[in-house]
Amino acid sequence: MSTELINKKTNFRWVIVALLFFSTTIVYFDRVILGILAPYITKEIGWSEQEYGYVVFAFQLTYAIGPLFVGFVIDRIGTRLGFSLAVIVWALASLSHAAARGWLGFAIARLGLGIGQSANFPASIKTVATWFPQRERAFATGVFNGGSNIGQVLAPLLIPVVLYFFVSWQYVFVLSLLLSAIWLVLWLFLYRPPNESRFVNSAEIEYIKSGSTDLEKVKVPLKELIKYPQTWVVALGKLFADPVWYFYLFWGAKFLNARFGIELKGLALPLIIIYIVAWSGGMAGGAISSALLKKGKSANFARKITMLGTALLVLPVMLVPFINSLPVCVGLIALAAAAHNSWSANIFTVASDLFPKKIVGSVIGFSTTISSLAGMVTALLIGYALNESGTDGYVFPFVIAAFGYLVGLLVIHLVSPEMKPVSFKSE
After folding, report:
1. For 168, phi and psi rounded to 5 degrees?
2. How is domain 11-415 classified at the architecture level of CATH?
3. Per-domain boundaries in the chain
4. Which of 99, 114, 184, 246 falls between 20 and 30 A from 92, CA-CA?
5. Chain centre to alpha carbon of residue 294
6. How far is CA 142 from each of CA 253, 277, 282, 427, rounded to the nearest angstrom?
7. How many angstroms separate the CA atoms of 180 and 187, rounded?
8. What does the pLDDT look like over 277-325, one tens digit per residue?
9. C-beta separation of 361 from 122 below 8 A
C-alpha cells in the first residue's frame, strides 16, 4: 500500500453527522405526530383548543427544565453515554402516548418526552464541536438539523400507512420506539471521540484539530456561565426564534385543517413541501456562513450577515392568515421555515464559535431552557387565542413570527457587537 493512500484523510466525521441527522429526524417525528393526529384524536377524546395548548405546554415545561441539567450531565459523563440515556428516556415516553385516554394522559407523556429530547441539541452541537474544525461546523450543523424537517416529512407519509395496516393511532408511537432503538444500536457501535475511534486515521484527527484553540479542561458552573454576554447571544438567538418554530410544529397542520379543511391524508404534500424547503434553507444558511469564513471574513460578520438575510426572508409570513390560496400559504410558510433553519444552523454554531467545546453542551442547554420558557408562554397564549377567536386567532402568532428574528438580531448585536470568544484559563 502506498504512503499516499495510507496518509489519505478519512471522512468518518460525516458518518457522525448522519447519526445526528437520524436522531434529529426521530425527535421531530415524535414531536409532530401529535400535531398531525390532533384533528383525528380530537374526535375520539374531544379535547378543546385550550386543552391542546396545555398538552403542548407540558412538553415545553420539561423541555425547558431538562437542559438545565442535561447539558451539564453530557459535559460531565460524555456524549456517548449521555446521549444514549436520553434516547432511552424519550423512546419510552413516546410509547407511553399509546396508553393516553385524555388530554391529561397526553400531557403526562409529553412531560417525559420533553425531558429526553432536551438532550438532542446540546449533545449534537457538542458532537459537532468535537468532530469538526470551526470552518465546517455551520454546514455540518445545517446538515444534521435537516433531520428536523425530514422527521416532519416522514410523519405525514408514514402515519396514514400505519393507520391503514393497524387501524389504531397507538401503533404510530410503537413505530417511534422502533426507530429510537435502531438509532441507539448504531450510536453505541459507531460513536467514540475522534482520538478513540477505530474508524478515524491520524490525518482526519489533525484536520479536526486544525484552527482549534479549545481549552479541554475548562469547567464553568452555570452561575458563572450566565454572567458572560456570549452566553446570552446564544440564548437570545434561540429565544426569539424557537417559539416560532414550535408554532409551525404544533399548530401548522391544525392551521391547514382549520383554514382549508385538509384532512390527514391531504396533509402529506403541503407538509412535505414546507419541510423539504426548510431543510434546504438550513443547509444553505450553514454553507453561506461557512463559505464567508473560508474567504477570510470574521465569524461575527459571517454569522450575522447570514442571519440578517434569513430574518428578512421571514417577513412575508405575516400575510398567511389573510390569504385564501392554499399553495401561496404553503409557499410562504415554507420560505419562513427555511429561513428559520438557516438562523438555527448559525446560532447553534455561534455557541462553538464563542465557547470551548468542553462546555458547549451547557451553553446550548441553558439557551434551550430560555427559549423553551418562551415557548411555554406562547403555547398557552396561542391556545387561548384560538379558543376565543377561532381561526382569527392565527393572526397574532403569524405576525409575531414575522418580526421575531429581526428583533432578535438587533438585540444580539447590542449585547455583543463583535461576538468575541470567551477567554478562560485552563485548570
Report:
1. -80, 140
2. Up-down Bundle (1.20)
3. 11-415
4. 246
5. 26
6. 24, 13, 5, 33
7. 10
8. 988 888 898 889 989 988 989 989 999 999 999 999 999 999 999 999 9
9. yes
